[in-house]
């Protein structure tokens, strides 16, 4: 043992503590050692050396004690031979009477130690050193075996933990599609993986130690966006955001970021994890799709305006054609040869159909407009007016119509009147020639969603309106095509139509954020269901 150094250094501490001789401790059968106020060992006796199984070297007083032997508590907690516990004891100035560990000697044998740590104070009550007295506690072979098992289990678990940590850190370091980094409590970058280098362009040596706001645009830093994200993560546990970020070379990328708060055992925030993904290609594709959609919407509006203007302008020359044809027929029709009279009748009929087509085109253009205001409307009055407008054909064909009580809703009155008029008109037009026409108009509030794949139609409440008839029906495969422009239900002689009516119905329903579906079978009638979301 380096006695000269021990005595010189120790006497300075022991004199302040009121102890004059180290020989007294050397004569003790109990193991003893002394630590200075910094928690560093400055003296030990022969009994301590025997228990340790070695004579550690004592160097300068500020050096760490070099005889760090593995020690374990009864709960398998490994205690490294550092000064943390001693420093706390010195600071508190209170003795520790229940110190007990299992120590592993250099020859791998184990010994159970129990002892006391006693603060040594000067005349002013300041702790200047700590006296540590300890001795071996005899245990049975079975107890030692149990201790060995505990230590072996701890060692295995510790090795597994180290391997798991190594795999985790390796995985984080090798990930290239995500920038994964750690921030301290103030947002200073602590580590850097390959993904961060690939996405942001900085080497680890260039970025660690800098604030993560370096990746944000100048305008975002001016409005304190990085600080607000950190605050949100601290207060709520997580902050999620997408926006433009800046690479080292000054180029921009669209980043999707998640900042997650990290907590200690007492749930204090000790830092943050930050994961960033480069979604620039996705962002540019979405912007392009949005641009195309806006351009398409603009073109559709122009086309609708053109169709309206063209149809409106055609009405005047057509009106003159009808006027002149009717004038000739009324005043000279009987004088014309039979063939000429037949051609004149065909011309009048063609002009009448043209007038109907133009009117339908104008109605379709009006149905495409969103400028009309929705108002509270009693749909019962709308249904009554629609039925009244078809009074003659209803009475002539002895048609039975059953109508439910309808709700008051915010709708575009003119368009809803057009909707029910077209659907009732179809039910009357395509009645079965061999049975009495029977039409039912139903209304109900339901939570059952329509049978469509439109995920945007996700309201929890709907009004479902149905118009069903017992007419000639149609092929089920034709149900979706019915709502396309110029598609007609039937081409039988005597049944006329422009093929625009159901397209108008679909436009009106879409204007009200709803869905319309058609169901039918040949000879068994047809049913049209309309779903309008509740407010």
TrEMBL record:
SUPFAM superfamilies: ATPase domain of HSP90 chaperone/DNA topoisomerase II/histidine kinase, Homodimeric domain of signal transducing histidine kinase, PYP-like sensor domain (PAS domain). Its EC number is 2.7.13.3. The keyword Nucleus does not apply. It catalyses: ATP + protein L-histidine = ADP + protein N-phospho-L-histidine. Residues 309-535 form the Histidine kinase domain. One of its GO terms (molecular function) is phosphorelay sensor kinase activity. Gene3D superfamilies: 1.10.287.130, Histidine kinase-like ATPase, C-terminal domain (3.30.565.10), PAS domain (3.30.450.20). InterPro entries: HATPase_C_sf (IPR036890), HATPase_dom (IPR003594), His_kinase_dom (IPR005467), HisK_dim/P_dom (IPR003661), HisK_dim/P_sf (IPR036097), PAS (IPR000014), PAS-assoc_C (IPR000700), PAS-like_dom_sf (IPR035965). It is an enzyme of class 2 (transferase). Residues 164-237 form the PAS domain. Keywords: Coiled coil, Kinase, Phosphoprotein, Transferase. The keyword Coiled coil applies. Residues 144-174 form a coiled coil. Residues 239-291 form the PAC domain. NCBIfam families: sensory_box (TIGR00229). PANTHER family: PAC DOMAIN-CONTAINING PROTEIN, PHYTOCHROME-LIKE PROTEIN CPH1. This is histidine kinase. The lineage of its organism: Bacteria, Pseudomonadati, Bacteroidota, Chitinophagia, Chitinophagales.
